[in-house]
Each structure stands twice: as structure tokens, then as C-alpha cells.
Amino acid sequence: MDSVLAPGLYIVATPIGNLGDLSPRAAQILLNADIVAVEDSRVTAGLFRHLGAKRPMTPYHDHNAEAVRPGLVARMGREAVALVSDAGTPLISDPGYKLVRDARAAGHAVVTIPGPCAGIAALTLAGLPTDRFLFMGFLPSKQQARGETIAEVAGIRATLVFYESGPRLSGALSALAQGLGDREAAVAREITKKFEECVTGSLAELAARYADAPPKGEIVIVVAPPGEAAPASAEDADAALAEALTRLPVSKAAGEVAKRLGLDRKALYARAMELKG
């Protein structure tokens, strides 16, 4: 049914796999928006084929956002602009927050139409604590940056949620095991699709499982929070320092290990100098 939408920005969550998960309200917004801002028009065109309709679309993604954002914001004063990502909830590991910010600054209405989100769906499948969780998006691809990112969250008492691709999955799991300890974890993929699976185990077990068989599809890694760990031993500190020194200068290696293991940074710096020598 046609319905005139008030001008403004409409943030519309779309299915992450099963098109039956599109809510009636989301469908109504998409069918009546004046323009739909999309990551990839080919992907969203498939959703409109499912709805049996066509709507005007315009690209909005990381590569063109700065150029096209002012025009979209201007249109919100007189038209209903819907924002979608290729799958799931816009702004969650997708471009969009600056569009929301600028729309609000211009005095336009901003409406959210909630729905599927891969990270939240994976949490429901993993069987890990959900009272506190931290969404981390994609880990950096470079080894040093990835190790530093993992070290930053090693002590946080919350379940961690990461997005990942198939070819990088085993390496990411190995890096997480190295940086966080061999915690319980889950790998969820193809959520809501025909070949949906959620595999659980320790980080090391999961890394080994996928080492020679990178999976296909959209992947979420869910990692349990840290347990009550025993105080780190001298051997633990030496091992952590030796690994950190392979990718960091002495000072940064000592700082990273001090934060991860809860040890004195000055003592670790002195020990790192010994190991380096």
C-alpha cells in the first residue's frame, strides 16, 4: 500500500540472508521512500525484486560518502531518504554515522527501522555470556596493528564480537588465541541462510579447524570474556615479551605486555632489553 512518508532520513535494516526476515515496516518504508541510498545497487535491486517493485537508488559507500553526503542531506528537507547497507543494520560496521550526524545538524527527522544484525544474531547462537559484549568490527589486516588491537581489549570483561572473511579466519583466530589466551569461542557463518552453522570450541581448536579449509560466506567470531586468571609467571612474561618483540620496539612491547598481563611496565622493559640483547 502506498503511503506518503514525511521528509527525513530513514535507517532501514535489511535481511542478512533470508529475505523473509524483512519486516513489514521496513518493506513499507523502502517502497515509499523517494530515494534509497545503497552500498551496492546490484545487491539492493535483488531485495526490490523480492518486493516486486523498483525504487530510485543512489550509491552511498566509503568511497563516495564525502562527495554525495551534502546532496543527500539537502534532499532530506523535502524528500524521504532511506539508507540501507548490503545486509543487516546500517552503521554497524558500515558507512552512515556521518550522514545521521549531518542530518540531525540540519534539523531533519531521523527514524530507525530496526531489524537483522549479524553480530547480534551470532551472540544468540554462540552460547556465551551476553550481559556485556563489545563489538569490534573487522580486525586490522596487518600483523602489528592486529596484535595491538587485540592487546587493547584483552583485559575487558565482556564477550567480544568480530566480523571476518573466510580467507583471513584462521589467522584471525590464531592471533586472538595468542593475544587473549585460548578462550572459548564460536564461529557463526551464513546466518539465516541454507548452510548456516555455528561451530564452538577453543580459539586454538577453531584456528586449526579452518587452517586448511577457509569457509565461505559472512562470518562472525564470538569470544568469551576472560576468566579469573592466575597471576602471570616469569615464563609467561618472557613468552609474551618474546612474541611482542617480533613486531614492536622494546618500549611498546613492554607496554603491551604490561597491559595484557597486569605486570609492572618498568620491570618488563628491563627484561625486554635483556631478551633483546
From TrEMBL:
<keyword id="KW-0963">Cytoplasm</keyword>
<dbReference type="Pfam" id="PF00590">
    <property type="entry name" value="TP_methylase"/>
</dbReference>
<dbReference type="InterPro" id="IPR000878">
    <property type="entry name" value="4pyrrol_Mease"/>
</dbReference>
<dbReference type="InterPro" id="IPR014777">
    <property type="entry name" value="4pyrrole_Mease_sub1"/>
</dbReference>
<dbReference type="InterPro" id="IPR053910">
    <property type="entry name" value="RsmI_HTH"/>
</dbReference>
<dbReference type="InterPro" id="IPR018063">
    <property type="entry name" value="SAM_MeTrfase_RsmI_CS"/>
</dbReference>
<feature type="domain" description="Tetrapyrrole methylase">
    <location>
        <begin position="9"/>
        <end position="207"/>
    </location>
</feature>
<feature type="domain" description="RsmI HTH">
    <location>
        <begin position="232"/>
        <end position="276"/>
    </location>
</feature>
<dbReference type="InterPro" id="IPR035996">
    <property type="entry name" value="4pyrrol_Methylase_sf"/>
</dbReference>
<dbReference type="InterPro" id="IPR014776">
    <property type="entry name" value="4pyrrole_Mease_sub2"/>
</dbReference>
<keyword id="KW-0489">Methyltransferase</keyword>
<dbReference type="GO" id="GO:0005737">
    <property type="term" value="C:cytoplasm"/>
</dbReference>
<keyword id="KW-0949">S-adenosyl-L-methionine</keyword>
<dbReference type="GO" id="GO:0070677">
    <property type="term" value="F:rRNA (cytosine-2'-O-)-methyltransferase activity"/>
</dbReference>
<comment type="similarity">
    <text>Belongs to the methyltransferase superfamily. RsmI family.</text>
</comment>
<protein>
    <recommendedName>
        <fullName>Ribosomal RNA small subunit methyltransferase I</fullName>
        <ecNumber>2.1.1.198</ecNumber>
    </recommendedName>
</protein>
<keyword id="KW-0698">rRNA processing</keyword>
<keyword id="KW-0808">Transferase</keyword>
<comment type="function">
    <text>Catalyzes the 2'-O-methylation of the ribose of cytidine 1402 (C1402) in 16S rRNA.</text>
</comment>
<dbReference type="InterPro" id="IPR008189">
    <property type="entry name" value="rRNA_ssu_MeTfrase_I"/>
</dbReference>
<dbReference type="Pfam" id="PF23016">
    <property type="entry name" value="RsmI_C"/>
</dbReference>
